[in-house]
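Need tRNA-splicing ligase RtcB's 3D structure for a figure. Predict it.
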Amino acid sequence: MTTTREFQDITLERVREHVWEIPKSGEMRVPARVLASEELLEQIGDDKTLQQLKNATQLPGMQKYALCMPDGHQGYGFPVGGVGAIDAEEGCISPGAVGFDINCGVRMIRTNLTYEDLQGNEEELVETLFENVPSGLGGGGVVETDVKTVEEILERGLDWAIEEGYATEADRLHCEDEGRRPNADADAVSEKAKNRGKNQVGSLGSGNHFLEVQRVTDIYKEDVAEAFGLEADQIVVLIHCGSRGLGHQVCSDYVRKIEQRHGDLLAELPDKDLAAAPAGSELAAEYYGAMGAAINFAWVNRQLITHQTRKVFERVFGRDWQDMEMELLYDVAHNIAKKEPHDVDGETRELYVHRKGATRAFPAGREEVPRAYRDVGQPVIIPGSMGAGSYVLRGGAESMQETFGSTAHGAGRTMSRTQAKQDYWGETVQDELQEQNQIYVKAQSGATIAEEAPGVYKDVDEVVRVSEELGIGDAVARTFPVCNIKG
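Structure prediction for tRNA-splicing ligase RtcB:
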């Protein structure tokens, strides 16, 4: 069995099955670890992911090791699929290790419809969803509002959506952090960011964001699936998007402020895209508040899309959404940094856990897990490509020890968008998905479909297999696409 691998002058040592380590050397403060099978490691080693992961170990206060999940790929500064737990008193917080799309995340809505109920309605459903859920670049949302309302959303999250009639109490209880970050500070968000957000509340955006109607094809853990309200042949809806232009502006604003106020720290880092503010500094507190506000915005964004989706289902199927039991299973964030207590060398310490393209995966018993799921573990939703299906997992027993309570967030790209548009023709991909797999796709352009062709993603089955075998996330159910709309 291979004990070492080398990619672009970086040597990885095999710690055990699916665990590879870049040993601490030079300016590295801790080792780096990649969680991957040999097949996935080949893809991860094919771009700048490993160098970015190695660079991340130089962030002050990094604990144990910087981590790359099985779906990892190159990002800006910090790899997508990266997890970095940094001391919240003596370390730093890094907008670069959170990413530009703050709280890009995913939610799943259950229904009591079966695949048979849906058959024959696919084209009407995909067309009506596309007409009623804003997507693509630029403005346009379910609501177009003013800065004052955006500030309320930033401060209150799903509480605002409940008050305005877009959400229910059950929606709030089945969302990470119950849909509201207590530290959110709208005053720490710039007017430019708020103005970008006011016309985008309730919109998918572009890129890899999507709304997908799916059917449950496989159940792996009956008891957990029952707790999650999932059963074979059931129709569910997956919504994947984030904080749109507002979140991007927040990240840009604070990277610029770090350059101005903490250039000394930035100068010590190997990549300026890792920009970080020292823990305890005024800027660290400001960014944490602004990020919390953008997180709230993203939860409201996905909630308004949920509201529209419920209305579309009512129109297409001629029944109230409550009658179709269109309830939120769970909403989980991907690009986020949160203060969490974790065990480090036998001592409980408060850490800024940065998850950039990674999912929180807390096991059973953690109080952060919604009461409905506390006995079985937190739901984890891992989207695959629009031709391969997705998975629902539950937080694994080993996640706290191995990954600071984290696992993968999707299949992970293997090809750039530019290369994808050279290799694929959007209309051809669209036709093949419908003819061969009965998957109905609608997007703003053929180029968008080409960029998101199934062939540009890693094998989601392999990503989930590694997660399971490491004990950081256990497969509960598998789903397969029926209808998909993209920006």
